[in-house]
Write a structure and sequence with these properties.
single chain; about 150 residues; Nuclear Transport Factor 2, Chain: A; 6-stranded mixed beta sheet; 5 helices; about 40% helix
Length: about 150
């Protein structure tokens, strides 16, 4: 009888140990909503030519990383400087859109985002893909690593 009770308790614990609880699903949904809000705020800032506001989506730290075709940059200020150099004015910035966003919440304080970016400018329409690592801080979700690549259409 004790063995049967132990097995029954174990079987009842499996969903708790290995499944996702309703609270966990709610937390994941909240994280996804909050991360989408950060990205939407970044797009809005970009499209009004405000790189400083765009950068508020990044962790303001010397440990923030940006990976692109020119290598690895470390530090929030270095990322800001890169954006300012590459996009000196509204014409260069164009209109930004993100699409195909896939948000994977890895833990209560970490998430991975895959997506596509596109700039619509008078002379061209560059675009590509990105992988973002988000971390939750007391002030909210922030990008700690951004790996962005341009996709050249053939």
């Amino acid at each position: 009888m004790k063995r049967i009770c132990a097995m029954l308790i174990l079987l009842l614990m499996i969903p708790v140990l290995f499944g996702e609880s309703p609270a966990s699903r709610s937390s994941t949904a909240n994280a996804e909503t909050e991360i989408r809000a950060v990205l939407e705020t970044q797009v809005e800032a970009w499209n009004r030519d405000d790189i400083n506001a765009f950068m508020q989506g990044y962790w303001k730290s010397d440990k923030t990383e940006f990976v692109g075709s020119n290598g690895i940059l470390r530090g929030w200020q270095a990322v800001l400087d890169r954006y300012r150099k590459a996009y000196p004015d509204g014409r260069a910035m164009g209109t930004l859109t993100f699409s195909g966003l896939e948000i994977t919440v890895l833990s209560p304080t970490a998430a991975l985002v895959l997506g596509k970016w596109r700039l619509d400018r008078e002379a061209d329409h560059p675009g590509g893909v990105f992988t973002l690592v988000f971390r939750k801080f007391p002030e909210g979700w922030r990008i700690i690593n951004d790996h962005t690549s341009a996709v050249i259409k053939k």
